[in-house]
Amino acid sequence: MGYNVEKQHAKGKLHAIERINALCDKDSFMEIYSGVRHNCTSFGMESKDIPYDGVITGFGKINGRKVAIYAQDFTVQGGSLGLMHGKKIAELIDKAIQARCPVIGINDSGGARIQEGVDALCGYGDLFYQNVRASGSVPQISIIAGPCAGGAVYSPGITDFIFAVDKISQLFITGPKVVKSVMFMDITAEDLGGASIHSKKSGVAHFRCEGENECYEKVRKLLDYIPHYYGDELVQAAKYHFDEKKKAKHIETILPENTRKGYDIREVINDVTDDDSFFETSAEFAINCVTGFAKIEGRSVGIVANNPGGMGGVLDCDASDKIARHVRYCDAFNIPLVTFVDVPGFIPGPQEEQKGIIRHGAKVIYAYSEATVPKLTVILRKAYGGAYIAMCSKHIGADFVYAWPASEIAVMGAEGAVGILYAKELADPEKAAEVAAKEQAYREEIMTPAIAAKRGYVTEVIEPSATRRHIAESLSFHADKQSMDNPLKKHGIISL
Prior knowledge:
The structure is a single chain. By secondary structure, the protein is of the alpha/beta class. The chain has two domains: 5-222, 2-enoyl-CoA Hydratase, Chain A, domain 1 (Alpha-Beta Complex); 244-404 and 462-477, 2-enoyl-CoA Hydratase, Chain A, domain 1 (Alpha-Beta Complex). 37% of the residues lie in helices and 18% in strands. It has helices spanning 5-9, 16-23, 83-99, 118-134, 154-158, 176-183, 189-193, 195-200, 212-222, 244-251, 266-272, 317-332, 350-355, 357-370, 385-390, 414-421, 423-426, 432-447, 449-454, 467-477; strands spanning 30-32, 55-62, 65-72, 103-107, 140-144, 147-149, 161-165, 170-172, 207-209, 279-281, 289-296, 299-306, 337-343, 375-384, 400-403, 408-410, 460-461. It is elongated. It starts with a helix and ends in a 19-residue tail after the last helix.
């Protein structure tokens, strides 16, 4: 079949078939439904032959395992989606559900084919419906390799992971022209919905890549961490590397002496997981928390962590959404969860309250409580108030909770607590020594992890250097965890 490769190369882009071949193992892709054509007879369409109706669909292999894959071809009618175009993709997803394999969509389309009217919208509807059917059954990965506007954004929005490429990817409900006509605002497509916008500000994109080849390598890497269908067993790698001596020594030095000082939580994650195994998701969005995948003794785990290096690790609306979504994904595909806690609380103030921090924060509690996979929590330093509960405490279903000796578990920090309990004494300069003593007593008698351990809320207080061993052995013990205590119901109500 003749592909207009040169037209894409002139734009600095790969052609649809080149993109598929870059993703799939060599010579593994097999196209299906190449003979499909549109049936539109309006606005001169009856005389137009649109090869494969603008989208290449088929099956291939990545890392030796089967995948379903489609790529919209912008050189064919702008990759526009009509009835048959949408039906091709919808049927591919349906077959992927039956075959139990991931679906990868490469999006490069001008949007709905206007000449087809409501039939084009029907094509989108068929696609969205299959996206929802596939959700939680097989992984769905979207690569944004061109423009996605209007209805075209919702299919990627339903999928599990979105990859964006600098200066190529664009996603927006309405493009710059509509924004200008309705809101009288001049804005470029890049500033409205480019890769940087969606990886840093909106959180729509989970991965941002400098170029297409980097993007396809990251997709291949992601597929090495996640099950390929619901019920697929995570296979333990035959070999793994972990520099125990070096990492055990380093992890003891990470926490700053000053408890108000931040640090990069990735240091802890890397010291606990297999060497060079941490694969971060949404790295540029909500930097006050970190999510991703890693391997411990060669087996995949989901990672969630507060990051004191960003906004002190506080939970805001964006961090709550990021955490809740990742927890829910891991639970859907039976990936064990490891949570690292260092959180001073939910963020205060009118801005986040008005954005709905109550609604967003509740998602974290809901996601962890709903999750039935093995859940391990390590409290590193601060665990205050509602945020302590939300970050996978025993109270909402953690299977094992470990705490470092210097950790603090309480309603709030000592200074804030004393400010409320001894407000009158604080106002009297002569009682400064008494107040200081009360603050120290609060730290020793209320905040220490030993108190939580006595109550059974903490499984064990451990040294930082012992973290890896406790996590690995707990995961091994709970590998075959069964949960049977959910009440009879259709599903919960909270929107995630």
